[in-house]
Amino acid sequence: MVEQEEAGVPVQRQPHAIETVRWVSAALLGVALFSILTVVLIYVGPSWSWDLGIAAAVQSRRNPMLDVVMITATYLCSWQVVVSGGMFATLYLLLQRLWLGAAAVVASLLGNVLIVGGIKDVLQRVRPDQTHALLPASGSTFPSGHTFSAFAFYGLLALIYLGQGRRSTHSILVAVVTTVLIAIVGLSRIYVGAHWPSDVLGSTFLGSAWLAIVGLVLAYAREKAMAAPPQTFNATAQRWAVLMVMLWAIFIVAYAFFYSPARPSAAIA
């Protein structure tokens, strides 16, 4: 301990400093890549050969089985599903007395709306031709709102889970499942014909940056809260979690039914 004091850098602060550098680096890299892509898209105009080629290749793989998978994936990040899921997640975290996690979910989803909506309004990029889209969409196309929502919601839930110090095997599984889910959501937006590939790529850069910013704030908030009394674990919250997941699943099924691709009202942003 004497060596720690002489060096002036307590051991317990070194991991936090490294974590901060990682979060800041990830955020800056994401913003930089998004900015570069935005400039490129402004320069090349609405139709980019890269976009056209990849979109055609992805959509050429359409078949009934993949249609179900991709439509399900895209529904999981529709704003109706994400908002309802955010409400259930916030309630669950409050029942667990995880105040920071609950606040992070609310802040992340609000940031999702403001960031994506603001950029879409400014850039006003035209969507692909919606004539043959499986799920016709409306409004500006860049960046992909569904892909950003995957980071802002599912990515954040994984981050909160990993921040609770769970077993490494569980943490790895959660990280892998979340990464696969985000990737499939992004791919689904191209598959159903709602977005250009560059829209999804842009949201991947920006969503990663946003998740890193929220992760950095959470890390600092947890450090400030370390001196506070430990939060009481409410075991009954697990039962509530099961109930809320079931209710959320029912909502998703109902939403998918009423917003079936066969219905004229299926257009979503």
Descriptive keywords:
mainly alpha, globular, Vanadium-containing Chloroperoxidase, domain 1, 10 helices, 0% strand, disordered N terminus, 269 residues
Largest sheet: none
CA-CA gap between termini: 57 Å
* Structural class by helix and strand composition: mainly alpha
Q: Please tell me the overall pLDDT.
A: 82
CATH class: Mainly Alpha
> Order of SSEs, N→C?
HHHHHHHHHH
In terms of quaternary structure, what is this? single chain
Find the CATH topology: Vanadium-containing Chloroperoxidase, domain 1
Number of extended strands: 0
User: Which architecture does the CATH hierarchy give at level 2?
Assistant: Up-down Bundle
Q: Please, how many helices?
A: 10
Count of all domains: 1
Write down the overall geometry: globular
Provide the β-strand percentage band. under 5%
Gyration radius, to the nearest Å?
Answer: 20 Å
Q: Level of helix content?
A: over 70%
Weakly predicted, low-confidence segments: 1-15, 227-234, 262-269
